[in-house]
Write a structure and sequence with these properties.
Order of helices and strands: H
Number of helices: 1
Shape: rod-shaped
Number of strands: 0
Radius of gyration: 16 Å
Structural class: mainly alpha
Length: 37
């Protein structure tokens, strides 16, 4: 059984990775849009 601290860290890390992925996707999308112009 985990203590709260460990679960919290794990959750923070996971949400951070998700955030980075979303930003990466957004950047690629905007680059594609710019290239289309």
């Amino acid at each position: 059984m985990y203590n709260k601290e460990e679960r919290f860290k794990r959750f923070m890390y996971a949400s951070m990775m998700l955030q980075l992925e979303e930003e990466e996707k957004a950047r690629k999308a905007s680059e594609r849009a710019a290239a289309r112009r």
